[in-house]
């Protein structure tokens, strides 16, 4: 396997065309095709689905591409460090469900390393995407939750992908509502109290099983239900429609403002927040430092 083969693979995956990739790479199409077939033979996998409509990556190809990109990033760092005598840039990526304390820890980390070069990524993603991101080494750390309801499925999914879950905090279910919501004067709410109001949930894409929803009690059927894709939209709808969402009760007013409040929900369920890491990857020092800060934020968590 050669570095140039990995570079070719990335270009083919980007263009979805051997002809266009060959033009971009300034090589002949037969040379490019042979290089890809040689890579497939050496790795003993099929990287591409080839048809008259074009070329697409197989499932194995998608996974292999993620490793190839990791290798090329490291090669680029080595070139800049030793050929161009550039100070190496620290690379770090974290993926998580929509939790303010994850953002808070990320902000604290970047403030701490403000005088250093770094390339950092924070992704608020769907549950299954967080798991896949860490499994494919696109992110070093992922933050998700387990509950009585989803624990068996989550544990099985993590085991299959050789991921480890480390607990951070256990919380009881809470309801997020607008501070001027008709139910805002009540300290404790029931599902029956919430029935007249729209239930807001994060969209989970193709993996829309209740086991992968970000909200506990996802299998509870609401007469009014709205699916959203981002935190800002969810909060706007909480305010505009007197909607509600069921979560951990953890909220950061510095990041989310004072308009949203949390109320305890009558339920036997519990939310175990934690982070996941790959068994095949050793965290770099910046990721280790992020975990230190994340644990500090988790210890300081106050729920409503």
Q: How would you describe this structure to a colleague?
A:
By secondary structure, the chain is α/β, with parallel strands linked by helices. The chain has three domains: 3-83, Winged helix-like DNA-binding domain superfamily/Winged helix DNA-binding domain (Arc Repressor Mutant, subunit A, Orthogonal Bundle), CATH 1.10.10.10; 90-163 and 273-299, Periplasmic binding protein-like II (D-Maltodextrin-Binding Protein, domain 2); 171-271, 3-Layer(aba) Sandwich (D-Maltodextrin-Binding Protein, domain 2). The chain is built from eleven helices and 13 strands. The strands form four sheets. A five-stranded mixed beta sheet has the order 4-3-5-13-6, sandwiched between helices. A four-stranded mixed beta sheet has the order 8-12-7-11. The longest helix is centred in the first third of the chain and has 25 residues, at 59-83.
């Amino acid at each position: 396997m050669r570095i140039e083969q990995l570079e070719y693979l990335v270009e083919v995956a980007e263009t979805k065309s051997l002809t266009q990739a060959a033009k971009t790479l300034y090589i002949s199409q037969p040379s490019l095709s042979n290089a890809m077939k040689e890579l497939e033979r050496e790795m003993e996998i099929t990287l591409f689905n080839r048809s008259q409509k074009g070329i697409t990556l197989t499932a194995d190809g998608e996974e292999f591409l993620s490793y190839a990109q990791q290798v090329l990033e490291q090669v680029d760092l080595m070139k800049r460090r030793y050929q161009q005598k550039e100070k190496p840039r620290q690379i770090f990526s974290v993926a998580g469900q929509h939790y303010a304390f994850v953002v808070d820890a990320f902000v604290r980390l970047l403030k701490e390393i403000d005088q250093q070069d770094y390339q950092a990524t924070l992704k608020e993603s769907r549950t299954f995407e967080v798991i896949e991101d860490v499994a494919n080494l696109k992110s070093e750390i992922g933050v998700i939750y387990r509950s009585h309801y989803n624990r068996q499925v989550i544990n099985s999914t993590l085991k299959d992908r050789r991921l480890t879950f480390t607990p951070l905090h256990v919380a009881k279910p809470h309801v997020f509502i607008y501070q001027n919501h008709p139910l805002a004067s009540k300290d404790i709410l029931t599902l029956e109290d919430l029935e007249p109001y729209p239930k807001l949930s994060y969209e989970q894409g193709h993996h829309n099983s209740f086991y992968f929803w970000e909200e506990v009690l996802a299998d509870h059927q609401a007469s009014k239900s709205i699916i959203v894709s981002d935190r800002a939209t969810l909060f706007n709808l909480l305010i505009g429609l007197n909607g509600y969402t069921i979560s951990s009760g953890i909220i950061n007013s510095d990041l989310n403002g004072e308009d949203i409040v949390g109320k305890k929900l009558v339920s036997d369920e519990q939310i175990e927040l934690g982070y996941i890491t790959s068994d095949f990857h050793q965290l770099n020092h910046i990721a280790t430092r992020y975990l230190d800060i994340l644990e500090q934020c988790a210890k300081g968590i106050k729920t409503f």
